[in-house]
Amino acid sequence: RPAQGAPHPYEVAGTLLRLDLRTSAPLNPRPPPPPPPLPKTSDMIPRRTLPALAPKTSGAEFEAQVKGLVEELAAEWSALFPEVPPDTDDGSEAKETRRRELLHQLDASGKFFAFKERLKRAVVRLARESTARPTGEPPDEAQQRVFYNDLYVALLRRMHAALDATFFPPAVPPSAPSAPSALDGTPPEAALATLASEAEAEFRLEAAANYHHERVATAPTIAAAWLAYGTFLLRTGRGAKAEECSREAIAVDPEYAEAMLVHGVTLASRSNHEQAEPFLRAALDAAPEDAQLWLLMAVVYERMERGRDARVALRQASTLLGEGSETGPHYLALAQRLLPYAASPLIDEALERAGGTDTLAANLVRAEMLLQRGELAPAETVLLAASEAAPRPRAAPALTLLGHAQLRQGKAAEARATYERALSLCGAPLPAPLLLHLGAVCQSEGDAARARHLFLHASRLSPSCTSWLGAGVACLALELYDEAEQCLCEANILDNRRPDVWGQLALLCQRRDRTVEAEEALEQATRLNLADGKLLVAIGAAFFDGGVWAAAEGCFRRALAVDATPLTMQRLADSLLEQQSYKEALAAYRRAMQAVAEDAAGAVAQACGRQIKRVLAHMGLPEDDQDDSEQLPLDGTTG
């Protein structure tokens, strides 16, 4: 043993003891494997390549192929010599060297053979159609030489024509002006988008769907049209079809960030989180400074139970918002941003994380979600509480939504009072949608003067077919015929395929004794499937009063197909009686009597009873004749 305080011999000698240890498990836990890379959105939804229409003639096809090959050759040259400007002039030897390199590259890559094969089909078709060969016996050597000579000349001429058109395109003369789709030159696609938004705001959802469908049919290569159709379908509860539309928007434009967001939100709302993640990440990559998108990713990761990723996303959002910033208001803004996409599950999550931030705004979001789902009574309850608790200047949006909920439940009087309160709280300029809704309610209640004022005000602020139509109908009710005609003509210019506009024009023209114009307008309304029973009855009554019995009969029949009321049946019978169709008139009067059998003392029943006696007298039948075996057709036929 070493002496006290002396160094240990092992230490002096530098002795080492080396041990090899093997553990049954790692001392530090092994890190989890990284998640697999997300698939590319372009792999999930390939770009839509619309098929090009084949040229009509063989010559046009040959020229199109030559033009396409020239463009591809130019692209190959630019890729092979990116540093050489196209118009450089460095001597013939350098040009020849580049030409040989290009030919070698084309030959080595196989593109030269592919180009020849593409051109072969066009050459064969052109040869068959443009040159004639004698039938029967095979051609001799002289005929073959002539044939090949003519073919060579034709191909050379076509090739030069295609090259000249490519490098020296002719000046295109200005086309003659055509009838514009709108007064301000708005293209049809944009006009249809406006009409669709207008119809949706008025709760005419079927018309809005038709406008959207026509828009994508008119402009299938515009991604915004597909996306607008998809978001509309989301708001009307047709998620599966909406997903197809957002997919099509991405296929048309793979760089469309909003389409990526909508498609991802749609999938996430349906709990397809793994499929939604690549699209949401693509939207985030397009706008990495958007804090709301990071908050959305945090919500989605929480729903996927990926807490670590959710914390990273939330931390990134906080960094963008600034240290110490509250995320609650931004979650609320995220919920408002997702409202047009009807993403209820994600909106609920965002509102939950918003906490007590701006209770009024949060309640408005909840109420609008309920309205989108058609839960009108719960929405009305939420909005009543929100409008009562809101400060006076901020209560107008809540009251407007409350009016919508009441109107869609058939509470017209309550809706009018609510709309009036909302209007009194709005500052200038007044919101045009609120004016339109209030005007429609006033018109339905018979207050034509108030409706006229509201619709004209809306027309001055934001002219639309609906505003001018409402003003025209109100003026017509007030017998301001000149003003009514001006308003209805404006409405017809903005949307000449709306059947109720043509119907109101027919009513106006007939009341002004312009029967020919009235019949033409009615023909247009019928062609567009006018289905407003009250308007059809009013038009029929105007024709009846003017002595145009056949037109009146047609209106009453179409009205009966929409809403068979005893009074309309009586009016139809009156028009048949005036045309001396006694048998059909008798059947119609008896049908009307049967419909009001429980109110035999009513005005309709008494009038029908008197007319039945009159008809029986004309037919020479006793008053107690009860033969009603002949039934009156109500499908627009004359029996």
Protein topology:
Layout: H1 9-13, H2 41-44, H3 58-80, H4 92-109, H5 111-130, H6 141-167, H7 188-201, H8 205-218, H9 223-235, H10 239-252, H11 257-269, H12 273-286, H13 291-303, H14 307-321, H15 328-338, H16 344-354, H17 359-372, H18 376-389, H19 396-408, H20 412-425, H21 432-444, H22 448-461, H23 465-477, H24 481-494, H25 499-511, H26 515-527, H27 533-545, H28 549-562, H29 566-578, H30 582-595, H31 603-619
Give a description of the structure.
The protein is mainly alpha-helical. Helix content is 68%, strand content 0%. It contains 31 helices and no strands. Helix 18 (376-389) packs antiparallel against helix 19 and helix 21 runs parallel beside helix 23 (465-477).
Mean pLDDT: 86
The total strand number stands at 0
Distance between the termini: 133 Å
Rounded Rg:
38 Å
Largest sheet: none
Strand content: under 5%
In brief:
This protein is mainly alpha-helical.
Name a few traits of the molecule.
639 residues, mainly alpha, disordered C terminus
